[in-house]
Design a protein that fits this description.
Helices cover about 50% and strands about 15% of the residues. It has a two-stranded antiparallel ribbon. It has helices spanning about 20-30, 35-54, and strands spanning about 5, 15. The chain starts with a strand and ends with a helix. The protein has two helices and two strands. It is of the alpha+beta class and about 55 residues long.
């Protein structure tokens, strides 16, 4: 496998999807990420904040 360059569907930035990450995703049965790490982390933080506010 070779590294791939993907485009974030949220912010439009390019990010690398490394061969190692691809292997991990395949082993777990995950689909390719659609968002960059920054946008994924922001979404996780938002979910976490909503959970603590309730």
């Amino acid at each position: 496998m070779e590294d791939k360059e993907l485009t974030c569907e949220q912010c439009g930035s390019k990010f690398d999807f490394t061969a190692g990450e691809q292997e991990f995703y395949n082993e777990k049965g995950f689909q390719e990420p659609k968002k960059c790490k920054t946008c994924r982390d922001a979404a996780k933080a938002e979910k976490r904040n909503k959970r603590f506010q309730n």
